[in-house]
Design a protein that fits this description.
The chain starts with a strand and ends with a strand. The protein has helices spanning about 15-25, 35-45, 60-65, 85-90, 105-120, 120-130, 160-170, 185-190, 195-200, 220-225, 245-255, 275, 290-310; strands at about 5-10, 25, 50, 70-75, 95, 150-155, 175-180, 190-195, 205-210, 235, 260, 280-285, 320. By secondary structure, it is of the alpha/beta class. The strands form 2 sheets. The protein has a 7-stranded parallel β-sheet, with helices on both faces. A 6-stranded mixed β-sheet has the order 2-1-3-4-5-13, sandwiched between helices. The chain contains 13 helices and 13 strands. Bound molecules: 2-keto-D-gluconic acid (8YV). 2-keto-D-gluconic acid binds next to loops.
């Protein structure tokens, strides 16, 4: 019996590649270079399934005429804003993602960024490595801790909640949140739901956990940045598109807000030079889900979606068809 052909656009953890081979005729990307539009089109034309990542831009042209052979796009990741769902639907292509398995890893990274910016961790490390540390003194690199501070969470899905739990239980932070769909569970836990405006005015740390959609694009722009406290720190582990980065760079340079911790960018992998020059900004290279547990979990989840589809079952994490 012929097995479905699955093209995998990036290298995956070894155990995941091995498990994929047990069920599919797998085409791996040995060089691990990102696929361009032509590579994607060729892969879609010649395989039954595509296992893709955030570095693959799957737009209407990729799926478009003449019809492609691929029937399912299994995204390795929770966010799927790089896939044109309308175009996939128009061509009857199923799209799946991998929610849940990267929640803890991403929540941990959001808190890491809060600590790094608040406690001036990278400033200190840069100074020490440059041989410029002259010794302990009471006024040296004094920052701000998390304990007792107000955290505003924008987008209260799985990851937002995981951040809220850790911030409240681990650091005694007061959590307020903004979401489209408030739940009784969050209210019962003593978290206060607020409008975006009220949250921005109150929070010392603002952490973004909303998906990137047409509606959320630049939800943090010049107006919103001006609503924030002068001592506020903006954390983004969701998607770069949520923030107007040009406006953020202005706000940081002009002291409209105090600092930022970013893991995601509008035009990855490029980062605005103006941000690179700022001290109160911590910049990470999209590490949210970069733990062994999360990456293996994501791979297994993608495999489960592919197996379900080719066995005639509904893939558990279908986001469009
Ligand atoms: C993933 C992410 O590593 O899952 C997501 O939404 O942002 C990342 O943590 C990335 O999407 C891989 O495709």
């Amino acid at each position: 019996m012929t097995r479905p052909i699955v093209t995998v656009t990036r290298r995956l953890p070894e155990v995941v590649e091995t498990e994929l081979r047990e069920s599919f005729d797998v085409r791996l990307n040995a060089d691990d270079l990102p696929f361009g539009p032509l590579d994607l089109r060729r892969a879609l034309e010649s395989s039954d399934a595509l296992l893709c990542t955030v570095t693959d831009r799957l737009d209407r042209a990729a799926f478009g005429a003449p019809p492609v052979r691929t029937r399912i796009v299994a995204n390795f990741g929770a966010g799927f804003n790089h896939v044109d769902l309308d175009a996939a639907r128009d061509h009857g292509i199923v799209v799946t993602n991998t929610p849940g398995v990267l929640t803890d890893a991403t929540a941990e990274l959001a808190l890491t960024l809060m600590l790094m910016v608040g406690r001036r961790v990278t400033e200190g490390e840069r100074e020490l490595r440059a041989g410029k540390w002259t010794g302990w003194r009471p006024t040296h690199l004094v920052g701000r801790g998390l304990s007792g501070r107000t955290l505003g969470i924008v987008g209260m899905g799985r990851i937002g909640r995981a951040v809220a739990r850790r911030a409240a239980a681990g650091f005694g932070m007061e959590v307020i949140y903004h979401t489209r769909t408030p739940t009784a569970e969050d209210e019962a836990l003593g978290r206060r739901c607020a409008s975006l405006e009220a949250l921005l005015a109150a929070a010392e740390f603002v952490s973004l956990h909303a998906p990137a959609t047409r509606e959320t694009r630049h939800m943090i722009g010049p107006r919103e940045l001006r609503m924030m406290r002068k001592d506020a720190v903006l954390i983004n582990t969701a998607r770069g598109e949520l923030v107007d980065e040009e406006a953020l760079a202005d706000a940081l340079l002009e002291g409209v807000i105090h600092g930022a911790g970013l893991d995601v960018y509008e035009h990855e992998p490029s980062v605005r030079p103006r941000l690179l020059r700022l001290d109160h900004v911590v910049l990470l290279p999209h590490l949210g889900s970069a733990t062994d547990d999360a990456r293996i979990g994501m791979g297994r989840r993608a495999i489960e979606n592919l197996r379900a589809y080719f066995e005639g079952r509904t893939p558990p994490d279908r986001v469009a068809d």
